[in-house]
Design a protein that fits this description.
This protein is an alpha+beta fold. The protein has 17 helices and 24 strands. It has a 7-stranded mixed β-sheet with strand order 18-19-17-16-22-23-24. Strands 3-2-1-5-15 form a 5-stranded mixed β-sheet, sandwiched between helices.
């Protein structure tokens, strides 16, 4: 019996491809890089065809490196970044680079729609505020600014659906990623015709909605040739990367929560009841019968810190046998909790939840001549943790209480950063034994879809284990509580200044 599963993750900075055994063991994995384009202030774009080329390259590398017979692969699951707006014509050709989740270009369009239809009515249907980061505004931006693209568009695809299309030739739309559209009825899980018409979105743009674990097609002969796979492998619809990561971290029950830190950060709370709050993000979960209430943050802070301030650490990496990020952890670990009063606002690309402010900026507060690079690195870690706490407190106000976090993503590999998050949020954090939780979640969808697992419960029991646990340290609570208040106050006091600065550009 075939017992290998292939997972594909379309992240912001790279794709990840991994082949798993049924028990969750990674046979082989590879990455593929691509660019983010920033042609104008507020713009952030990627080329979906570059995603596909990176996926093919990484898949071939996996097969070769792992000496895998592709005919042993029982199924393929694909997850991807949120809120894409990939315009394809009737032949499946990509008509333009897609604005990604960081893109704010449609702010004015969203403002007009909110005034025309009513923010409350849009939220009532979709369970989410209409802001520029979602798919809706991006598509309407095409209509106003790229009419040649809009007129040729046959379908709008999400990131995972685009890769599924390249693999199978089948158009799909999973229920989890449907939250990018504000004509999606979040409570019922269907398209809302009245809202679609009110927003002026063509019916044909919207693919039929499928469960995330549903098999929507099989690998075509052409895709097999490009990717190194074999024709006929079943491919499921897949879902949102954060949701697949939540599943891959072992979250299955009401109240269980995943915390992630990577290029995009945030929390995902599993809930069996409909809980919408305009300060947060709501989507259907990849597991039927559940939603996930999300806090979505900019992320990517430590990657930026390393790139801009890590020249010395990169130079010393070979001599010390330690990566630049490991060295950053070491210098941050020498600084006391609270960073001696240095507080960082991590709003490096505006911010999503819970402030929804495209004008928000990153800020270091409390610097003086006694402070070191270590203070700045630790303050950056703490600033991200304050954003997690802000989202958790907002979720609690929305009726979603969290007891334990499950950490995943690159930041979970840092014992220091994970402990900082536990101390600042006051929550225990469990870290599953997988650096590939997101692709694991994608292959769990595939495994359930093709019948390799009896159900999601069996899949999680077979594949997910916890490798370490962190408990909050009560001795540093007072320090972090004080800095958290400064964190909130800084944004409150600087909010209007940030907006004025942006409007002067």
């Amino acid at each position: 019996m075939k017992e290998l599963l292939l997972g594909i993750d379309i992240g912001t900075s790279a794709c990840k491809v991994a082949i798993f055994r049924k028990n969750g063991e990674v046979v082989t994995a590879a990455n593929g890089d691509y660019k983010v384009y920033y042609p104008k202030p507020g713009y952030a774009e990627q080329d979906p065809d570059e995603w596909w080329r990176a996926v093919c390259k990484a898949t071939k590398e996996c097969i070769t490196k792992g000496a895998v017979d592709p005919s042993d692969i029982a199924g393929i699951g694909v997850d991807g970044q949120s809120w894409s707006a990939i315009a394809v014509d009737k032949c499946g050709n990509v008509l333009a680079r897609t604005p990604i989740w960081m893109d704010n270009r449609s702010s004015a369009i969203c403002g007009r729609l909110n005034r025309k239809i009513g923010e409350d009515e849009i939220f009532r249907v979709s369970g989410n505020p209409l802001t520029a980061q979602y798919t809706t505004g991006k598509v309407l931006w095409y209509q106003e600014n790229r009419p040649e693209v809009y007129q040729e568009t046959d379908k709008i695809l999400q990131s995972n659906a685009f890769i599924v299309y390249r693999l199978t030739g089948k158009i799909s739309q999973d229920i989890c990623q449907s939250y990018g559209w504000h004509c999606f009825d979040m409570e019922r899980g269907t398209w809302n015709e009245d809202m679609r018409k009110a927003m002026g979105i063509p019916e044909g743009f919207l693919p039929e909605i499928s469960p995330c674990h549903a098999v929507v097609g099989t690998v075509t002969k052409a895709a097999a040739k490009e990717s190194g796979l074999v024709e006929g492998i079943p491919v499921v619809a897949g879902g949102l990367d954060a949701a697949c990561g939540t599943l891959g971290a072992g979250v299955l029950n009401n109240g269980e929560t995943q915390e992630q830190g990577g290029q995009a950060g945030g929390i995902s709370i599993c809930t069996d009841t409909y809980k919408a709050d305009p300060r947060l993000i709501l989507s259907h979960y990849v597991v039927p019968g559940y939603w996930i209430l999300q806090g979505g943050t900019t992320g990517g802070v430590m990657r930026w810190m390393e790139r801009e301030f890590g020249d010395y650490e990169r130079m010393m990496a070979d001599e010390l046998g330690k990566s630049s990020l490991v060295q950053f952890n070491e210098i941050a670990g020498k600084v006391a909790p609270g960073s001696d009063g240095v507080v960082f606002l991590p709003y490096m690309s505006g911010e999503r939840t819970p402030i929804w402010d495209p004008y928000a900026k990153g800020v270091f507060y409390g610097l003086d001549f006694s402070k070191t690079k270590g203070h700045m690195v630790r303050a950056a870690m703490e600033g991200v943790a304050y954003s997690v706490r802000h989202n958790l407190e907002t979720a609690k106000e929305a009726g979603a209480s969290v007891e334990v976090l499950r950490g995943m993503g690159g930041s979970a590999n840092s014992l220091l950063w994970t402990q900082i998050k536990s101390d600042i949020t006051g929550k225990p954090i469990e870290v599953p034994d997988s650096d590939t939780a997101t692709t694991l979640g994608a292959v769990i969808l595939a495994g359930v879809g093709v019948g390799l697992y009896r159900d999601f419960k069996e899949a999680v029991e077979l594949t997910v284990t916890v490798k370490r646990k962190h408990q909050p340290n009560p001795e540093v609570k007072e320090i972090y509580d004080r800095n958290y208040e400064i964190y909130l106050e800084l944004y409150k006091n600087l909010k209007e200044t940030m907006k004025k600065q942006e409007n002067r550009r």
